[in-house]
Amino acid sequence: MSELGEPLDAKDRALIREAQAALRAGFLRHRHTVAAAVRTRRGAIYRGLNVDGIHGPCAEPVALGAAFTAGDRSIESMVSVCRRGRALPVLSPCGNCRQLLLDYAPRATVIVRFGDGRVARMGVAESLPGAFQTFG
Predict the structure, then answer these.
(1) The predicted structure's pLDDT at residue 39
(2) Is residue 60 a contact partner of residue 36, using CB atoms and an 8 Å limit?
(3) Is the pLDDT reported for residue 126 higher than 90?
(4) Is 6 a catalytic residue?
(5) What is 10-107's CATH superfamily?
(6) List 3, 60, 76, 126, catalytic entry
(7) Where is 95: in which H helix or E strand?
(8) What is the DSSP letter of 90?
(9) What is the domain partition of the chain in residue ranges?
(10) How many degrees, rounded to 5, is the angle at CA 83 between CA 99 and CA 112?
């Protein structure tokens, strides 16, 4: 993977649509404003919404938890979306969520939005340079 990201493929675009569908279904202003979707190696997709509160959680750990609850820990990719007017664009996961993905699925990819509006896929490790890593 390049630190500039790789172009999206059909599976990435399908994952984005799943996250957008989750946000359409569960959007509630000031409560559920971000959705995430994770895809596992076997092709299953799990979705989550953020839960607004003092300490979150973000949508990404909710989606990861859905996969783990189903016994599917082979996370391959993650994407997050938010609402901007009527659009549901990709939203780069926060650093905490990228770190969480790195902890549980260090070979996974994450779909991110760059400052110029470009959306690309990159390895989670590349998306979080200098990430915390446990020792031994």
Answers:
(1) 98
(2) yes
(3) yes
(4) no
(5) Cytidine Deaminase, domain 2 (3.40.140.10)
(6) 60
(7) helix 95-104
(8) B
(9) 10-107
(10) 35
